[in-house]
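Work Package 4 report. The design task specified in the project plan requires that, given a folded chain encoded as C-alpha cells, an amino acid be chosen for each position. We show below one input record used in the internal validation round.
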C-alpha cells in the first residue's frame, strides 16, 4: 500500500520540489540476486559465486548495478500511487551512476525528488531524481534521474 495517493497531473506537479520521505528499508539477499541473474543471463561470479566472492576486495557477493536500478519502480509504488491519469511510460534514465557497491545482505532504501513536471504534446513529462542508499555506507549505491511520461486518462 502506498504511503501517499496523488491525483492527476496537478497532484504530480504539486510534488515538484517537495521533500518526499524515504522508503522503508529492504534487505537485498542472495536469492534475489540469483533470480536476477537467471532473468538477465548475467552470472558474473562477483554476483553469484559466494565462495569466490569472499576472497574478492568486496569480501562477498555484490548486487548487479542493474538490479539496484530495477528496484526503483517497486520503491516508487510503495511511496506514491498516481490516480486519475492514463498509463505511466518509462521514457528513460539520465545520469545513472553506481557510486558504491551494494553488498549482499545490506538494507537499502530510496529517496525520490521530483525535479521537473512539464507538459508535453503527449502528456506530462516528469523527471524524478532517485538516490538509493545502503544502510551504513557513506556513498549511495545508485543515483539516477528517472524520466516518466504520464499520459492523460482516456474518457
Amino acid at each position: 500500500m502506498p504511503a501517499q495517493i496523488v491525483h492527476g497531473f496537478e497532484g504530480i506537479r504539486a510534488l515538484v520540489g517537495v521533500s518526499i520521505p524515504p522508503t522503508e528499508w529492504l534487505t537485498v539477499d542472495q536469492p534475489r540476486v540469483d533470480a536476477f541473474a537467471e532473468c538477465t543471463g548475467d552470472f558474473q561470479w562477483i554476483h553469484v559465486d559466494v565462495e569466490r566472492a569472499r576472497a574478492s576486495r568486496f569480501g562477498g557477493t555484490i548486487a548487479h548495478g542493474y538490479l539496484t536500478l530495477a528496484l526503483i519502480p517497486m520503491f516508487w509504488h510503495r511511496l506514491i500511487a498516481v490516480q486519475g491519469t492514463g498509463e505511466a511510460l518509462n521514457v528513460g534514465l539520465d545520469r545513472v551512476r553506481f557510486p558504491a557497491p551494494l553488498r549482499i545482505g545490506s538494507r537499502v532504501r530510496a529517496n525520490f525528488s521530483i525535479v521537473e513536471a512539464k507538459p508535453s504534446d503527449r502528456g506530462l513529462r516528469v523527471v524524478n531524481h532517485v538516490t538509493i542508499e545502503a544502510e551504513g555506507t557513506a556513498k549511495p549505491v545508485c543515483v539516477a534521474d528517472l524520466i516518466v511520461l504520464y499520459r492523460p486518462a482516456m474518457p
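The longest helix spans residues 30-40. Validation will be extended to a larger panel in the next phase.
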